[in-house]
Each structure stands twice: as structure tokens, then as C-alpha cells.
Amino acid sequence: MLKADLKLEEGVSMASGWGITGNKGRCYDFWMDFSECMSRCREPKDCSLLREDYLECLHHSKEFQRRNRIYKEEQRQIRAAAHKATGGDGDGVPHH
Description:
The protein is 60% helix and 0% strand. It is an all-alpha fold. The termini are far apart. 8% of the residues are buried. Its main location: mitochondrion.
């Protein structure tokens, strides 16, 4: 992670911290941990894991990537099973 990426977060504040139902927002605790770290750290990179947790809470990027990998593997296995059921050996390589 670049230091410049972390610097962007320093001047950014979270909205009110309140969720849509009037309770504390779902990512508020992650934000508070990250914000507290940034206020006391020597180097912004010291807070990179907390920043990562906060951004994951907001955007679910890692979760979506993992779900996509799982889906692709399931589809690969389904294709392999279908190929094997139709007489292929499942590896996609013709053997003569």
C-alpha cells in the first residue's frame, strides 16, 4: 500500500456514524479503530491493517472476490463432471 493512499484517509471523516435505522453504523467500530490509530501513529502505514478492515466493511471487496473464486471453481467442477459423464476423462485433453 502506498503512503499516499493512507494519507488520503487522514483528512476524511466518517459521516455522522449513525446507520440508516438510527443506530450506530455497521462500520463505525472499524472506523473508530482506524481513526484512533491514525491519530496516534508515527507512520500511516502502521494503520494499514485497520484501514483494510474498515474498507472491507464498507465495500466487501475481499468477500466478493472469494465468492467469485468459489463460484468459478464450482462451475469448473460441474463442467468436468458433465464432460466425464459424456465419456470424456475430465481433463479436456484428447487421448488417442
